[in-house]
TrEMBL record:
Gene3D superfamilies from the UniProt entry: Nucleotide-binding domain of ferredoxin-NADP reductase (FNR) module, Translation factors
Organism, scientific name: Luteipulveratus mongoliensis
One Gene Ontology term of the molecular function aspect: oxidoreductase activity
SUPFAM superfamilies, per database record: Riboflavin synthase domain-like
Superkingdom, taxonomy of origin: Bacteria
Pfam families in the record: FAD_binding_9, SIP
Protein name: FAD-binding FR-type domain-containing protein
Domain FAD-binding FR-type span(s) in chain numbering: 15-142
Upper taxonomic lineage: Bacteria, Bacillati, Actinomycetota, Actinomycetes, Micrococcales
Length: 308
């Protein structure tokens, strides 16, 4: 490489903006749509698996993405845009990356037309444009945007709980789990037709709950029964967490800040509707002393509130 080309080469950021278009949409279940995006740049989209989160950026009310800022201060500039020109930004999980085909799949809950991302999932057509703000393969370092504790997957029991919105992350986590992993995965969906055929290691029990009157109620019963039959699991008060969001307009977000060398007796990954996550947290932390050194409580969305 010449000195000149080194001099003009741009530093790659951990996350970059990838211009994409819809290639296909597939109904995975009545309320889950797989959107396959294509775009030449996706050959450089990093394939990190697990619960890698990204931003999906969709045209705003003016129908274009032309005004979307892309530089280092894009978020500040985006907030200052006139509302009619401001693209929609939502958080999603990468479900699959096929670098050789320059494709990325995102599995999106279709919860009706109340949200622009859900409306997009329900009506997207080949050629519809979007931007994925996601991890760039050329970045030489951790990209961030993953909470699942891969370092603990063989060392301690896993407790993984989620609703439909967390289903794609749980499916990817299960695909990545070591064969030696053990624990409980408990997923909740709104109807029996939305139960998926997810498989994991032999030592990981996968349980589906169909929602009752209250979000998460059946899951709490399943988790309680599992914890009661594993009395050694979870009884530890070590570690610290940081509550990063618990506001009027934001979903609950609490993750560990203490990734010390000690192996906790349980690694808990809990995601879904914010109040259900908080209820699960009350049970785990309040009643079962789940170790704070290995918890992630993540409100993926909040009933009655748009993401932003
Ligand atoms: C780290 C992370 C990863 C995520 N990964 C995924 C993913 O892979 N797939 C996925 O589908 N979602 C995922 N989500 C959740 C997704 O970001 C939210 O559901 C988002 O609010 C959807 O945007 P929207 O435009 O459809 O609705 P919004 O405009 O944000 O909200 C409009 C209304 O819809 C309600 N609403 C929002 N989401 C849901 C829902 N899931 N079910 C019922 N009502 C809802 C809101 O309470 C509000 O009343 C993830 C969230 C986070 C934080």
């Amino acid at each position: 490489m010449s000195t000149m080309s080194v001099a003009v080469q741009q530093a790659v950021r951990p996350f970059e903006m990838f211009r994409v278009a819809v290639k296909t949409t597939t109904r995975v279940s009545p309320h889950l749509v797989r959107v396959t995006f294509t775009g030449l740049e996706l050959s450089e989209f990093a394939d990190n698996g697990y619960d890698q989160r990204i931003k999906l950026i969709l045209p705003g009310t003016d129908g274009t993405l032309e005004d979307m800022p892309t530089g280092d201060t894009w978020f500040t500039e985006w907030r200052q845009l006139d509302s009619a020109k401001r693209p929609v930004i939502r958080t999603y999980t990468v479900r699959a990356v096929r670098q050789a085909d320059a494709e990325v799949d995102i599995d999106m809950v279709d919860h009706g037309d109340s949200g622009p991302a859900s409306a997009f999932a329900g009506s997207a057509l080949p050629g519809d444009e979007a931007i994925l703000y996601g991890p760039h393969a050329a970045y030489d370092g951790p990209h961030g945007g993953l909470e699942f504790r891969k370092d603990l997957e063989e060392q301690t029991d896993q407790l993984i709980v989620g609703d439909e919105s967390a289903g794609p992350a749980v499916a990817s986590i299960l695909e990545g789990l070591s064969e030696r992993a053990r624990g409980l995965v408990c997923l909740e969906v709104g109807s029996a037709d939305d139960v998926l055929d997810l498989r994991g290691p032999d030592g990981v029990r996968i349980t589906w709950c169909v929602r009752g009157d209250e979000r998460g109620q059946h899951q709490r019963a399943v988790v309680r029964e599992w914890l009661d039959s594993h009395p050694a699991v979870g009884r530890d008060e070590g570690g610290e967490t940081t509550v990063l969001a618990d506001g009027q307009d934001s979903a609950y977000w609490e993750v560990t800040t203490d990734r010390g060398d000690d192996v906790p007796p349980l690694s808990a990954w809990i995601a879904g509707e914010s109040s259900a996550v908080k209820s699960m947290r009350r049970m785990l932390v309040g009643e079962y002393d789940v170790p704070k050194s290995a918890v992630a409580f993540m409100g993926y969305w909040r009933e009655g509130h748009s993401e932003c």
